[in-house]
Design brief:
With about 230 residues, this protein is of the alpha+beta class. Helices cover about 45% and strands about 20% of the residues. The protein has helices at about 5-15, 35-50, 105-120, 170-180, 185-195, 195-205, 210-230; strands at about 25, 30-35, 50-65, 70-80, 90-100, 135-140, 140-145. Helix 2 (about 35-50) packs across helix 3, helix 4 packs parallel to helix 7 and helix 6 (about 195-205) crosses helix 7 (about 210-230). The longest helix is centred in the C-terminal third of the chain and has 22 residues, at about 210-230. The protein starts with a helix and ends with a helix.
């Protein structure tokens, strides 16, 4: 499949993209984020100028119970199309959200489109969601990235820094973890539980309801694996 024109258009769009600030704030969990409207406002005229448009296609939607609530997992195949008729290969995206009404599917699509644009056009937002910020496992031993060198002592008393997890998007993190363990075996569930202990402790401090949702989902999957072994 010929992709010369669309690849050139995407590269040109990337050159015009700037870092996107986090203009919205989640008041419940006290973190800032770049909204889908921010992404579209910046990307739409640039993509249009390059003859590009996105085709988000929802290929499936499955519901499941969590903590006496109904959640839904949406699976999207997203394609970038070009005015020449060329297009990229579909990129898969999975989003899990509480099922709250007709707006849930729109919220899932908006999130999938935002992450697709961010990945395809390499849009920087300043979010600390890089895997290098998480504990690493090497040879069965959990390690952490080397800390940056400490700044010189301050001459004046300063206000204490915010908690290390203040900017964590816990909704996104929980969504990613639930997608990761929904089909996991019993052994993988136990490994996941050990590997994510620190993050789950931080989540409990930040949002007890969201922590309970993830805990109930894990227990449900663990019980399913136990019942399957009998």
């Amino acid at each position: 499949m010929e992709t010369k024109d669309i690849n050139a258009a995407i590269a040109s769009a990337m050159d015009k993209i700037k870092m996107l600030g986090k203009g919205e704030k989640n008041a419940h969990q006290n973190y800032n984020f770049a909204s889908i409207d921010d992404f579209l406002e910046m990307c739409r005229p640039i993509c249009a100028g390059e003859g590009l448009h996105i085709n988000p296609n929802c290929v499936s939607m499955d519901t499941f119970p969590v903590n006496n609530k109904t959640w839904a997992t949406f699976t999207f195949n997203i394609t970038m199309c070009h005015s020449s008729g060329q297009q990229t290969e579909p990129a898969g995206s999975i989003v899990s959200l509480p099922l709250t009404g007709a707006q849930t599917s729109g919220a899932a699509q908006s999130y999938a489109v935002k992450q697709y644009l961010r990945g395809l056009l390499l849009i920087a937002t300043g979010d600390n969601d890089d895997a290098d910020f998480l504990p690493q496992v090497e040879g069965g031993i959990e390690t952490k990235p080397a800390a940056a060198a400490a700044p010189p002592p301050a001459q004046k008393a300063e206000a204490p820094p915010p908690p290390a997890n203040a900017d964590v998007d816990w909704n996104k993190w929980v969504n990613d973890q639930m997608n990761q363990i929904k089909d996991a075996t019993k052994i993988k569930l136990l490994m996941w539980s050990k590997k994510t202990q620190k993050q789950r402790d931080d989540l409990k401090e930040a949002d007890r309801e969201l922590s309970a949702t993830l805990g109930d989902f894990y227990q449900q999957k663990y019980d399913e694996q136990n019942n399957g072994e009998r």
